[in-house]
């Protein structure tokens, strides 16, 4: 995707040295576009934990490069296993992280230590390329759904889509998941408009999704998280489309906190609720998402404090709760499969059921 006309991926190697890893510092967006140069696995782990880099597919890709950086320091078997465990422990909910580390280990364990660094960079690069291709395919399959909605709209009426959190290209290596079909629809000339949930407490919708859509020229409106149901009741939402951090083999979906409430409202108003994901986000070992998917509990300060731009143009962090008030901060919730209209993957769409997933991935 492009920023001010310049194409970028969300993670890339430094062109000069060929081995250090570059990412955008997502905690600085939308007010500042800062690029971080990561040179150690510890720096990668810190970037993931602090959400300088976030988004399930992107976390996995960056962690893969983190393992390559670790092997530059020590390519022994012990280092390989220890550094892989350290990186895998940085975020518990997103399954892509564990998938990427396990794929790297499968490639590197039988490789002689002297050849591991080159092999690690090669495999991490392949993970990135595959993610970009998968998300582009997701975009095409999701575009077909938006085209069908367009056929039902009166001439000149916008296609109103609602999304929660950020599932755009900044959350993946390129294209994004839930936003990929929206970009393609906009580029095709369809009259799309996006309701962007602010997505408290970290405001990934207001900060990241709105920034992405605005940079691409897609019409959008930021709304408070609790406005979605009202808009649905008044016929102002044609489809909800979100990403996900983990999908069970039965179709349950873990996504940013608040997604479950959007699914309930969509179900109550007979509005399609679609989830876009690459197959690397499917956890084939889990059947019951509510009971089995670990939900990350993040710092209370994310709830009690908020960052924003002052009237003078500086960025400040302020407290919004009374002194002494405690805060809970579960980062994700699980939407049961019964509330999901369907899943959009790189192989096509399917019902959010075990049978639906097996129809697309029979080899599993």
Structure explained in plain terms:
- The active site is at 245 (proton donor).
- Keywords: Amino-acid biosynthesis, Isomerase, Methionine biosynthesis.
- This protein is α/β, with parallel strands linked by helices and 364 residues long.
- It folds into 2 domains: 2-130, translation initiation factor eif-2b, domain 1 (Four Helix Bundle (Hemerythrin (Met), subunit A)); 150-360, Translation initiation factor eif-2b, domain 2 (Rossmann fold), CATH 3.40.50.10470.
- The chain has helices at residues 41-49, 56-73, 77-88, 95-108, 113-152, 180-188, 204-216, 228-233, 259-268, 289-292, 301-304, 354-360, and strands spanning 2-3, 6-7, 11-13, 21-24, 35-38, 159-163, 192-197, 220-223, 239-242, 246-248, 253-256, 273-276, 282-283, 305-309, 315-319, 332-335, 342-345, 348-350.
- The strands form 5 sheets. A 7-stranded mixed β-sheet has the order 8-7-6-9-12-17-18, sandwiched between helices.
- Helix 2 runs parallel beside helix 4 (95-108), helix 2 (56-73) packs antiparallel against helix 5 (113-152) and helix 4 runs antiparallel to helix 5 (113-152).
- The chain is globular.
- The mean pLDDT is 96.
């Amino acid at each position: 995707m492009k920023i001010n006309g310049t194409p970028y991926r969300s993670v890339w190697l430094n062109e000069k040295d060929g081995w250090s890893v570059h990412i955008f510092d997502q905690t600085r967006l939308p007010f500042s576009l800062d690029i971080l140069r990561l040179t150690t696995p510890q720096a990668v782990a810190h970037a993931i934990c602090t959400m300088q880099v976030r988004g399930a597919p992107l976390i996995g890709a960056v962690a893969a490069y983190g393992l390559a950086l670790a092997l530059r320091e020590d390519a022994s078997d012990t280092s390989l296993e220890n550094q892989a465990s350290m990186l895998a422990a940085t975020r518990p909910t997103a399954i892509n992280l564990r998938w990427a580390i396990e794929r790297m280990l499968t490639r590197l364990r039988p490789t002689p230590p002297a050849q591991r660094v080159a092999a690690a960079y090669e495999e991490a690069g392949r993970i990135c390329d595959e993610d970009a291709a998968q998300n582009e395919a997701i975009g095409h399959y999701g575009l077909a759904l938006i085209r069908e909605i367009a056929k039902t709209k009166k001439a000149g009426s916008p296609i109103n889509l609602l999304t929660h959190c950020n599932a755009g290209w900044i959350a993946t290596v390129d294209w994004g998941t839930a936003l990929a079909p929206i970009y393609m629809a906009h580029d095709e000339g369809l009259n799309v408009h996006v309701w962007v949930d602010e997505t408290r407490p970290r405001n990934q919708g207001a900060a990241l999704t709105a920034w992405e859509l605005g940079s691409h020229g897609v019409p959008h409106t930021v709304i408070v998280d609790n406005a979605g149901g009202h808009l649905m009741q008044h016929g102002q939402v044609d489809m909800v489309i979100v990403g996900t951090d983990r999908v069970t083999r039965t179709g349950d979906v873990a996504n940013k906190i608040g997604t479950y409430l959007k699914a309930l409202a969509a179900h109550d108003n007979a509005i399609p609720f679609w989830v876009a994901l690459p197959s690397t986000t499917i956890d084939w070992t889990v059947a019951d998402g509510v009971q089995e998917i670990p939900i990350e509990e993040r710092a209370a300060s994310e709830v009690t404090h908020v960052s924003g731009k002052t009237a003078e143009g500086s960025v400040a962090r302020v407290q919004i709760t009374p002194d002494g008030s405690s805060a809970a901060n579960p980062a994700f919730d699980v939407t049961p499969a019964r509330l999901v209209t369907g899943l959009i993957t790189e192989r096509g769409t399917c019902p959010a059921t075990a049978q639906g997933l097996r129809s697309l991935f029979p080899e599993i």
